[in-house]
Write a structure and sequence with these properties.
Two copies of one chain form a homodimer.
Chain A lengths: L7 H12 L1 H10 L4 E2 H7 L4 H13 L3 E6 L2 E6 L5 H8 L2 H19 L1
Antiparallel strand pairs in A: 1-3, 2-3
Helix pairs in contact in A: 1-4, 2-4, 3-4
The structure holds a DNA duplex (30 and 30 nucleotides).
Amino acid sequence: MIGMTRSPEQENRIFQALADPSRRAIFEALTQGEAAVNDLKARFQISQPAVSQHLASLREAGLVASRRDGRRIYYRIEPQGMEPLIGWIEHYRAFWTERVDRLEQLLNRMDQ
Amino acid sequence: MIGMTRSPEQENRIFQALADPSRRAIFEALTQGEAAVNDLKARFQISQPAVSQHLASLREAGLVASRRDGRRIYYRIEPQGMEPLIGWIEHYRAFWTERVDRLEQLLNRMDQ
DNA sequence: CAATCATATAAGCACCCACTTATATATAAG
DNA sequence: CTTATATATAAGTGGGTGCTTATATGATTG
């Protein structure tokens, strides 16, 4: 994990940003390529300020980035943004592995 | 992915459950082994009902399970509970192939 | 320049949520 | 049976959040 900040605040921002289904829907829409605010506004039944606010939340969480082209601002997914989330999940890897190993041992003993 | 529910409601419950830092802290505490409500109440500076409510939220999200022993109720992590979250991340494998592949291996072991 | 388009920010509001205290339920102990 | 312990549930409350409309900022166009 190179260049990993691992700050609880950033972790919190990510979890909070993804907690809202509208935000997850916007995030998912961006997987098909970058999109301007009005593109997303058209795709979802929501006001323009709401879209901008969701995007601001995602950007502060490091999940998306923006690029201005004329008067449009295109948003795209920031690939590294999910790293803290993946790191958080992997943090429980040892726990899961232990559980699985113990379960395997138990099953082996029952087979004998 | 065997026995995968993949319901948006469950997905939402998981994201919402993990959005709260207190709940994540409780979840993390359970990785060190099962614990009763009072154990967690002692570990964190929080009232007993607050702990019970957090645990209820985690249980409804499928992230923890409980077991009664006398008048104590022990909570433990439900290893399969994270599956929908991992599945959601896998959906973006085009962006994070390597890290997601490692998570996939973990998921496969959990399924066995 | 003025007008228009695209987005951001401000302000307000209704609802949600995490906490509290109070009470109910359930098991154990005397 | 009464009391104590452990947890859950109910009810209330302050702060946060997601939405709206209104306005500001910024870039293009005529």
